[in-house]
Amino acid sequence: xxxxxxxxxxxxxxxxxxxxxxxxxxxxxxxxxxxxxxxxxxxxxxxxxxxxxxxxxxxxxxxxxxxxxxxxxxxxxxxxxxxxxxxxxxxxxxxxxxxxxxxxxxxxxxxxxxxxxxxxxxxxxxxxxxxxxxxxxxxxxxxxxxxxxxxxxxxxxxxxxxxxxxxxxxxxxxxxxxxxxxxxxxxxxxxxxxxxxxxxxxxxxxxxxxxxxxxxxxxxxxxxxxxxxxxxxxxxxxxxxxxxxxxxxxxxxxxxxxxxxxxxxxxxxxxxxxxxxxxxxxxxxxxxxxxxxxxxxxxxxxxxxxxxxxxxxxxxxxxxx
Length: 321
Fold this sequence. Notes:
- This protein has helices spanning about 10-35, 40-60, 60-95, 95-110, 115-130, 130-140, 150-200, 210-235, 240-245, 255-265, 285-320, and strands at about 270, 275-280.
- It has about 325 residues and is an all-alpha fold.
- The chain has one domain.
- Helix 2 (about 40-60) runs antiparallel to helix 3, helix 2 packs across helix 7 (about 150-200) and helix 7 packs parallel to helix 11.
């Protein structure tokens, strides 16, 4: 099942134009308006759905928790995918091409968060310029780890790592799945990523969140490597062999790839205390490196859009042949 299977009975060229234009317009909306209100944000709605089931999952034993967690995930993914398909179907079948583009763009935008990611990472650097405590407090908005004992360098490392990892989660991966499966693909990916963020931890979530964690690993596998590849090609730094070696140092099968590419491209050391170190031979990141990291990520976003349009066209050609 590919993108064109989700498209309506427009002329092929018009259908391609609608999908490509909706993607471009979604990023323009992101740049100009940022995130929608919380009450209207679909990712927040996904979080409410997942939170509703938490107390039920925590009351189960390991086997029952795994089964229930998988069932809740599948139910949620099916609901999100079904609603997304219905919305796209109505937009593309019932509206003129121009309005279909606008509607799809506004539907897709909340699944992308480049402006917010960029702003929050730069805000950490600005807070560090005020004081270490201010930097730690601002970083706590971005990460789930304990930040109370982090040094200024470790705060900066964590912000740059978050930028690289979420460049995939919040931009590249949703666009990747939009290109392949349209709006339903992007929506289901964001549901999977949200479920992993909320449930994909060890400890009390070891069993209830195992399905969510593995599903996100599968759906993020190719996009994470695409993100790393773009960062690596645009930023340079080391060899592809080095990228592969460094990417495997993290416990996650995916997050290490964009983080390693960022570390090599900047020539800096990145790490999580007690967990891993990427590019250990690199220098400690300084203030300028945060801005260089944001610049590198921005170039990656631009390159991705230059790829996305031809990718949509190529998929259409493969389906037609």
